[in-house]
Amino acid sequence: MTTTSATDPALDVEGLCVDLSTASGTVRAVDGVSFSVRRGRTLALLGESGCGKSMTALSVVGLLDPAAEVTGGAVRVRGEDTLRLSAAERRKLAGPVLSIVFQDALTALNPVQPVGRQIGEPFRIHRGLSRREAREKAIELMTRVGIPEPRQRAKSYPHQFSGGMRQRLLIAMAVALDPDVLIADEPTTALDVTVQAQIMRLLRDLQDERDMAVVLITHDLAVVAQRADDVAVMYAGTVVEQGTVREVFSAPRHPYTRGLLDSVPEDAERGQPLPAVPGSPPELSAVPSGCVFQARCPLVRERCVSERPVLRATGDARSAACHFSEELARD
Amino acid sequence: MTTEELPAADGREDSPQTAPARKGPPRWWLLLGRDRPAAVAAVVLSLVVLVALFGRLFIGDHAQRQNLDASLRAPSLGDGFYGLLGTDVLGRSVLARLIDAAATTLSVAVPAVLCSLVIGSAIGLWAGYHGGRRESVAMRVADIILSFPSLLIAVVVLYVFSPSALNIVLILAVARIPVYLRTSRAEAAELRSRLFVDAARTFGTPSRHIIQRHILPIALPTLLTVATLDFCFVMLTESSLSFLGIGIQPPDVSWGLMVAQGRQYLQTAWWITVLPGLAIVLTTVSATVLAAWARIATDPAQRWRLTLPRKRRGASAAVPPEMIP
Amino acid sequence: MIIFLRKRILSSAVPLVCVVLGVFFLARMTGNPVDLYLPLSATAEQRAEFSAAQGFDLSVPAQLWNYLVDAAHLDFGTSLRTGQSATEMVLDAFPVTLQLAGVTMLLAISGAVLIGSLAAYRPNSLMDRVASLLSMTAASIPDFWFAVMGVLVFGVSLDLLPTSGTLGGPEVWVLPVATLLIRPFGVLVQVVRGSMVAALSAPYVKIARAKGATPRRVIFGHALRNAVTPVLTVAGDLTVGLVNGAVIVETIFGWPGIGKLMIDSILQRDFAVLQAAVLMTAVTIFALNILVDVCHALTDPRVRQAVPA
Amino acid sequence: MKFSVSSTPPTGRRRYRATTATLLAGTVLLASGCAVAGSAAGDAGRADGRTLRVVLTQEPPTLEPCEASLTGTGVVVRSNITEPLVERDPDSGELHPLLATGWKQRDDRTWTFDMREGVTFQNGEPFTAEDAAFSIDRAVNSDLACNVEGYVFGDEDLKVTAESDTRLTVTTEQPDPILPLRLSFVEIVPRTTNADAKVRIPVGTGPYAVASWQPGAAINLSRYDDYWGDAPDFPRARYVWRSDASVRAAMIDKGEAEIAVALDPVEAEKDTTVAFPNNETTALRLDGREAPLDDIRVRRAVDLAVDRDGIIDALLGGLAEPAGQLVPPGVVGHNEEIEPTPQNVKEATALIDEAEADGVPVDRQITLVARNGMFAGVSETAEALQYQMQKIGLNVKVRMADTATQLQYQLRPLPEDVGPIALLIMHGNQAGDAAFTTSQYLLSDGPQSTFGTEELDRRIADAGALSGDQRQKAFADLLVDQNRSVVQYAHLAHMSGLLGLSPSIRYEPNSATGDEMRLAEVSPAKAGQH
Fold first, then answer.
1. pLDDT of D44 over the 60 cut
2. Cβ neighbourhood burial of D31 (10 Å; 0-12, 13-18, 19+)
3. Size of interface B-C (CB pairs under 8 A)
4. Hey, is the C-beta of B13 within 8 angstroms of any chain D C-beta?
5. What Pfam families does its record include (chain A) (predicted)?
6. Chains contacting B (3 or more CB pairs within 8 Å)
7. What does pTM read for this prediction?
8. Which residue from A15, A72, B174, D508 lies 20 to 30 Å from D214 (Cα-Cα)?
């Protein structure tokens, strides 16, 4: 399933399935996830912890932990399915085509290497630059992401930077080779609110400048609202609703999306408890056979127990996986 | 808009173990069953412990009973239970002696390791937590013990005081204290600046409690791993002391002493020295395997490794396959 | 760094004196060596004469005072056994042990890093299992047993190596070093493997792979240096063990090292030599500890920064 | 469509395996390459047929000749580097002239010795009576505290004068019928030797001179070409040392040494080893001052409890002879009549029961003290003795000690408050006369004796003043008396040494080999080889 667009998407994920081994057996952590994103656009993968959004991201860049295994689907960039490439071919794509930013920049930076060397590394790997040239490139990038006194700071080590600065360094490293697709896995979660905004702005600027496709993984509705063009809402390893942010947020077609939006404080009255989606997501080992959301859904009916809804178009460029999305549309 | 966290979001999610962890840790014996080497190790180790605890009740005085006419009989099925593993030079049953020695060996190794573990970690954690002068004093004490020739202490204790298993335990324990001291100091020094310790401190928690409740539990797995490696070391050192004639003294018998005494018969009667050597190797390897397993099994961030199905574990890795050159 | 070094060296002085004093008193607890050096039939008068000549008739504090005064002039006394100066004997023996320990640790560390990294690369793979099992077994074999087996198998049966001794080409090193090697190697393989597994699953390794780094670059450029801290600590401890305790190997293979000198002088109550030997090894061990700390600082910038504080 | 990305691309896998294989192969090659490169000559040097390589148990502490009664020193020095005036034939016990051509007793206290002419020291100087006088003075009368002084001369000083170049007079303070035997322990050095300090490397008149001493590694000797006697067969000799008996044995098997001393009895069956009685006798010394050992019945019971044949066969490789006295065969005073006590558990138990009935505390714990390394299999022997003593109803604990600790038990002043002690001793009578044994071990206040009787003391004193056959008979009789009325010793065995000999040489060890190994007596197996 792809978005209807004239230009080819920079990243096209189709029917991705990931199995996860646990003590109690193998469970399906990602079940048939599909999405795509074009250059210059931002797709947000939105969901609660454990819904499979990070695992989706890691399988796209090929960094899954060994306990997890991709069992089906395709991840296409530049017309090739990366899942079928050899290790060496895949390495050629890592950096110039696909790139990723993690949440925790302290652990994502090598603590025993000067940051300049780490940022310059992609140039050494893919462009074969000398150490000195790579260093110059790194300093350029550091300047670009707003590190003061980059020439001196290039010699410093990660622990000598603040959290926000480290995140900038990580981003600098990720965009070094102008990738087609940048995956940002909760890039601002660990930061102060003010710093969050700066980082999001930096990401936006870099995206505009370099015409990247960005996949933004987050559980933060505000970030999605401000930052993303499209959104894919994930629940229990599946995409339950997809579409442009404007359409989905203004008129959700899935009860889960609606529940999420209702729980935002802005919409609640002062002094009243926040309305929350009751219950918690199912265990991956106990995902019901029918609709994955049935246990928490206010609209649940018999059909939901027996039949799993598929993602189907609910509008021009949007879709939802609910038997009763039309009902929601009428509300 | 300030905080728009998802209602059920309880933290970040990126590692695959989050989901199963929520259900509570799987039963340890289930995990053990899945790791065959660890299971075998556990069986071997419990067997050794059982033999050490109760073996002497069954063998009577067979470990001491000499028969100079039956000297150096090879292992055979024809000489009854006690002849299964042959006899030593004094005609004593090697099997009975192995059983007898198991008790002595463990009663030296286990208390020695425990003593040094407890004393060393206590001082180390205290020193590391407080830092400053207390830390450097403790470290210099460790240096002193490390650079002190334990052989000298062994000789003094053995020949000046009466030689006994207890004294060997003391020597070995003292000699190994620095290892724990240094390890636990390092852990405590790192942990003392962590947020949860600061928090506890601001609430006025006495430092003893902070060390006990916040630092010890985190340092413990590392210390236990060191202790297992040390268990092996202590058994071997005891054996080396026997080689030099300053270890366990006859008529007490330990595996190390059996290996040391039997080595001159290596060519003529291999069973006297090879079998106790094998007992040492089996026990220590089992302990190490089990410790490695326990370390993973008790660490929520590592436990998933044990849950991989067998066939996949062989093929997959912490580094995914595309990383293999 | 220099401040740190100076501080460390200064703070080692007191413990060093403690070691020397401890050895002095402990040695004297083992009794008067007179009996060992006079024939069994010596008369009481001869014994008294000998005691007086060696200063053993003085009170222990008086003996200590004499010792310290002499030591201050770098005179560590004369061996009862050989009549040579203790300093000379220790300086003869020490290089032997140092060379043995050095070669052993060099091989152990490089071998363990290689094997341990390969094993950590694919945890639970066949390679890993074999390496782990072998290293654990190696670490639990009694060394004298291994040595005697080595002599019989490689020295006599296969006739590949000399049985023992120090004179000859590099081949005389093989058995002693192999015997010394097994345990440090076994332990280090496990330590390297453990810390490499941890390092290889760290986020920065993922990031490095996301940059398209080759496995070699990932292992040697990123993971290894992070994994090196525990390896250094353990290697330091093991080296200390070798400096102090190559006794077995030196005894069996007839290498005149410090371990053999020490055990001989303990058994022969040759106090001057014992004290000099302990002083020498203690100084070495202190230096080694400082060296390990310096290595820590060199490999880990976080430690380096913490040092002046 | 499903497929697994975790199945490794085949190429990657194969390459990985190849890497491992290459590494493994490389390691093996490297190791074997190192091994083959020099193949295996060892310390003792390559077998060249011209160097006699001897492996000892320990490095000689010194080569000082006046310390030659220390086994470690004497085995290298005596009769190889230096020589005495008189030598004792280890087999017959007779004295033969060496640097002295003859001697005469002038009166009770005065002896004269005639010096051999034409003898030179290894430094080229001629040997004269002056040198002999100097050497005796230096060893016996000086402040050097030489081992030989305490060993054979006690407090006694000797008056030595060189009357001419070839005649020496020695005067003793007391009448001394065995002075020539005592002088056989004094090695002769040139008068230029340092008289105030011990030397590490001596000069002597022997067939070999010290060429070099590599500390810790080897001592090299080379043939002294102007030796006055027959030239030895091997132009060079080299001593190395290994403390582990199995390594020494391996060096013989491997051809790294021609002679190895003190092998374990386990090796006795090999045809590269030869056993020889070494004049050492083992026994349990029972401390008769402490209950229950103060009761002669208990001591006799212990003697009856010991299974000498069992211990010798199982633990000593069958190399020793059961003993019934401390004085070994071949030594003046040895009694041919004395039979070793046969084991008789029944009689022993009966004696213990009898003693117990009379109120002797037979269940008091006896400590059996033995020294590690005293002989091969000592700790097993101690365990066997303990077991055999326990079987007759005694309460025995073993305590293994090192040399220094054991000496505290062995020598007067004996330790106090340690309870009844059964000490395993090994007595070597190097000198060949029972007087050296009895004055030490049997006198009631002997330095190595715990108790005795006045009667025995008197007989020892009487025997010491006799000479010839009377001396022999007096000592032989008093040994019977100790076994009958004192029973301080439960004798175990007259021991044997085991020497490893390469098939390429011929050497006949004798009872003195352990203390004095004459390299000049070693010859190549095939005539004309060198």
1. no
2. middle
3. 167
4. no
5. ABC_tran, oligo_HPY
6. A, C, D
7. 0.83
8. D508
